[in-house]
Amino acid sequence: MRTELFAIGDIHGQITLFKEMLTHWNEATQQLLLIGDLGDRGENPKACFILADELVNKKGAIWIKGNHEEMLLNFLEQPEKTNDRYIMNGGLKTLETLLHEGVEDEYSPTEMAMLIVGRYPTLKQRLTSLPLYYEWGNFVFVHAGVDLTKKDWKQTSPRDFVWIREPFHSMKNKTGKTIVFGHTITPSLYGDNQTSDLWIKDNKIGIDGGAVYGGSLLGVVFDKTTMLKHYKLVNNGYVWDTKRESKEKIKD
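Below the sequence we write its predicted structure tokens.
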């Protein structure tokens, strides 16, 4: 019986750190939860998608929908309309690992989307089926946050569940739940652009340590009432080159 939950922050293609973090997961007693943003940027987005899909199918893991999953799904459904935005946000690395390097110069957005759907027939279905949040005892797990201006946080719009930043970070949490989220890197939440620890404030816990940028991958263990412990894997390996993205990108 799984009496605990093990949550992992934004991975963004960092397959080596992902696999290392899983060594701390007790499969027998802990429900595994991935907070979203498995791909785009990073070391190998394809490998992260494949591993996450196996964990959901074979181990009952929960994979929360992130904004980068949404952008990939949008690309597959409307490639010509969304291509530029997706590329500006690290999507080219995903396209290259799903297909091959230099693919952007060889195929049109429509051709790339068709090739991916044909080669990975279950990927689009997986992206479409991802939940927007997960409740576990006193906790709510969500990629970006919730709309705290709503009387009922469950009325948050689908877009805000995967994209919101402010006013979620600064607004008083009166939901009665502790909200565990990723999306905004903790170095940004701390305001110093370097502290990659958990960010804890007002019954909110930020778990995106900015691993892909040279920060940390964070893993946190909860029971139904309390945060029990956490793991911090400092990225001493692959670091994403931000020069590959446009200066006009929409961050994270």
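The beta strands are 4-8, 30-34, 62-63, 133-136, 139-142, 178-181, 199-201, 204-206, 216-222, 227-234.
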